[in-house]
Amino acid sequence: MAWIQGQLAAVPAWLTLLIVFLLPMAEPALPLLGMLLPSQTALMASGVLAHHGALPVPAAIAMAVLGALAGNVLGHLVGRRWGPRLAANLPERVTGSRGYRAALHTVGAYSARAVLLGRFNVALRTLVPVMCGAAGVPWARFLGLSLLGSLLWAPSCVAVGLIAGGSWQKWGGSGMLAAAGVVLLLTSSLPMLFSYRSSRRAQAQTQEGAALTTAG
């Protein structure tokens, strides 16, 4: 976190805002690579910089929201155009991973709502828009829920940075960010955990039904 904050502080404000836009946009547009991008951390760092006057708060929030929304739109387009081909060429270590199975089940169970449920989890945030496009989720509903998710997620991340920036001297910014990171990790893991458990139950029920049919 401190390294990213230092890097952002070293560049002009307009370039920092561009980075705050581009990182959330690239996550769903580049699904597998997107999981390696520190978009959530960058948004938190922008909040710290905004508190210290290096960035305007409204601009940081606006660019974060627009980047998140643009990323979902691009991810949906990628899924519509290349979704089946991408899925067919993914290595087994990806398709067999817990994150991939959770994202697949979330889209299958919740359709467009998956983009809202998975907004705070990096694996779901990255994979769900592409899967929604591949599944043919209608544009209007997907776009509306994407906007709502972006309006919840992006300002929350920037706000964490603002709070940490305000408490830097009194409480220690690193401690505040660590605590905030733990809270975000716990809350962001819940949708993925519920989806994975639901997926496991559905798989077990399917196997049980198949066993009963075979026995009968």
UniProtKB/TrEMBL annotation:
Primary location class: membrane
Membrane topology designation: Multi-pass membrane protein
Compartment(s): Cell membrane
Pfam families in the cross-refs: VTT_dom
Domain VTT, chain residue ranges per copy: 37-161
Top-rank taxon, per record: Bacteria
TM stretches of this protein: 55-78, 147-168, 174-194
PANTHER family: INNER MEMBRANE PROTEIN DEDA-RELATED, TRANSMEMBRANE PROTEIN
Protein name: DedA family protein
